[in-house]
TrEMBL record, chain A:
Its main location: membrane. Keywords: Cell membrane, Membrane, Transmembrane, Transmembrane helix, Transport. The lineage of its organism: Bacteria, Pseudomonadati, Pseudomonadota, Alphaproteobacteria, Hyphomicrobiales. It is found in: Cell membrane. This is Putative spermidine/putrescine transport system permease protein. It comes from the Bacteria. Pfam families: BPD_transp_1 (PF00528). It comes from Allorhizobium borbori. One of its GO terms (biological process) is transmembrane transport. Belongs to the binding-protein-dependent transport system permease family. CysTW subfamily. Residues 58-264 form the ABC transmembrane type-1 domain. InterPro entries: MetI-like, MetI-like_sf. Coiled coil: none annotated.
UniProtKB/TrEMBL annotation, chain B:
This is Putative spermidine/putrescine transport system permease protein. Gene3D superfamilies: MetI-like. It is found in: Cell inner membrane; Cell membrane. It comes from Allorhizobium borbori. InterPro entries: MetI-like, MetI-like_sf.
């Protein structure tokens, strides 16, 4: 069969470029986190994990990513359910409302939030009119601003992941539960949620890893006083030019995320017997 | 058939859904609103209506040249990622190669790996091995990010195609490359087209990898916007952003027409 040599020829350019442009740079960069001029060293890793300043950055990153992911679950799962069970037209409409922001540049969306959250922005004006805040109130440079902006940036990933799983759930299972006397809320709790759980968990992991590693939105909305690990990597890489330290922080970030995935797959395996 | 759900629950659902939709769309609407202001400052609601900021960006070289650069890179990425991604997807779909699953995992890795890591890797390794980063580096980074999307859309169409058509072509005497070009490629044309639109969108809007490679010579449109946002944003940023939103809408309509958004998400 001559499909084999042809398949090799078809896949070779892609594999070659991916090795040269992706695997090699990423691997070389990560190895720089534990390699100094004098060879192997933990110097850069220790510089991060022993400095209270950087530990604070790490804690803020985890905390914000956790809040963002939990909000995304609370908001995204109901929306995905409405999309999965709604009429075709409603689904298409909502799908466009989810894909349009997803496919719009992150700088553009963040700019929109800067206008809404900033001084004299919509939120500040509204709160001022209600007499809740003083003039010149601004949400910018706060962790709240980062959470609001980031939820909008990553929510589409959550919705699409959960939707993919929910569309494969048989709606007749819910009907069966209802016929057997289950209330609507009961059928959500006993049929839909368990069925959609794999999607919810993978959506959570995806959104968590995205929010823990984003820097454009946190830097613009949170400012220099509220750095996250990703922003600190960007600083070290482009402003202070400490590449080994930037690489070490990337290594820590990546290991943290991999540890999370690993724990999850272990737990999933245990749960499935 | 049982009664669907109580009325109060339907009302709550409707309120919740519209709130989420507003939350998702608001930043975009605000940006478009600001772009039409007649005033000198970024303000919403806009102070008076005019097209003066659109006139300004069309006559300012910083915007026209960064637009040209983004367009140039995005077109290169689209052509190369579509060609190489389609070929890879066809080979993966056949499942004749050893380790097909591992290879496809490798291709999809850039979707899962934070792009900050790709950006930093390209910056460091390119500077050490090749020299100063250039538009070529940006192109390479965007290519890596776009490739998995082309492969995914093409694979999605291939899985619903008829595997026997290619065999039939071979039986009728077509050579392996002839049947590939005349039968397989036309079969997955919608997937290829959708992949091309995604590739263009990813490259044109990409900010993370480009920011790592940022230099005075590398000023794509998103980087230009980011730079202005850091310093002194004026409504011309809103006008540029609105044009980018417009382009995204065009791409979404094209994808919807060619394969349908539903299919991509399944």
């Amino acid at each position: 069969m001559d499909r084999y040599p042809q398949s090799v020829a078809l896949i070779a350019p892609g594999v070659a470029i991916m090795i040269a442009a992706f695997a090699v740079p990423v691997a070389m960069m990560l190895s720089m986190g534990i390699h100094g001029d004098q060879g192997f060293t933990f110097e850069y890793i220790l510089a991060f994990v022993t400095d209270p300043f950087y530990l604070g950055i790490g804690w803020r990153t985890v905390k914000l990513a956790l809040i963002i992911s939990v909000v995304c679950v609370l908001v995204g799962v109901p929306l995905a359910y409405v999309m999965a069970r709604g009429s075709r037209r409603l689904r298409t409409f909502l799908l466009i409302c989810v894909t349009l922001p997803l496919m719009t540049s992150v700088v553009v969306r963040t700019f929109g939030w800067m206008v809404i959250l900033g001084r004299n922005g919509l939120i500040a004006d509204m709160l001022f009119d209600l007499g809740l805040v003083r003039r010149n109130f601004s949400l910018m440079q706060t962790e709240t601003a980062i959470v609001i902006g980031m939820v909008q940036v990553v929510l589409p990933f959550m919705v699409l992941t959960v939707l993919g799983v929910m569309q494969r759930l048989d709606p007749r299972l819910e009907e069966a539960a209802r016929v057997m006397g289950c209330t609507f809320v009961g059928s959500l709790r006993r049929v839909v949620l368990p069925g959609a759980m794999p999607g919810i968990v993978s959506g959570f992991l995806l959104v968590f890893s995205l929010s823990a590693s984003y820097f454009v939105t946190p830097m613009l909305l949170g400012g220099a006083r509220l750095p996250t690990v990703a922003a600190s990597i960007y600083e070290a890489a482009t402003k202070t030019l400490e590449w080994n330290f930037a690489a070490a922080q990337s290594l820590i970030l990546l290991c943290g995320l991999l540890l999370l995935l690993f724990t999850y797959s272990l737990a999933a395996r245990k749960a499935n017997g | 058939m049982v009664d669907h759900s109580p009325l109060w629950l339907r009302l709550v659902t409707a309120c919740l859904t519209s709130t989420i939709v507003i939350f998702l769309i608001a930043p975009l609407l605000i940006v478009v609103g600001v772009s039409f202001t007649a005033g000198d400052y970024i303000a919403f609601p806009p102070q008076g209506l005019s097209l003066r900021w659109y006139a300004k960006i069309l006559s300012e070289q910083v915007y026209t040249s960064s637009f040209a650069m983004s367009l140039w890179v995005a077109c290169l990425v689209t052509v190369s990622a579509t060609a190489i991604g389609t070929a890879a997807a066809i080979a993966l779909h056949r499942e004749v190669l050893p380790g097909s699953r591992a290879i496809s995992g490798f291709f999809f890795a850039p979707i899962i790996l934070p792009s900050i890591i790709l950006g930093l890797g390209l910056l460091i390794v390119w500077s050490r091995v090749i020299g100063a980063t250039s538009v070529l580096t940006v192109f390479v980074g965007h290519f890596v990010l776009a490739l998995p999307y082309v492969i995914r859309t093409t694979l999605a169409v291939l899985t619903t195609s008829d595997p026997f058509l290619e065999e039939a072509a071979r039986t009728m005497g077509a050579g392996p490359w002839q049947s590939l070009w005349r039968v397989t490629v036309p079969q997955c044309a919608p997937g290829i087209a959708a992949g091309a639109f995604f590739a263009f969108n990813i490259s044109f809007d990409e900010a993370v990898v480009s920011l790592f490679l940022r230099s005075p010579d590398i000023m794509t449109l998103p980087i230009q916007i980011y730079t202005q946002l850091e310093f002194s944003p004026d409504p011309s940023i809103a006008a540029v952003s609105s044009l980018m939103i417009g382009l995204t809408i065009v791409l979404i309509v094209l994808i919807e027409r060619v394969v349908g958004l539903q299919k991509i998400t399944e």
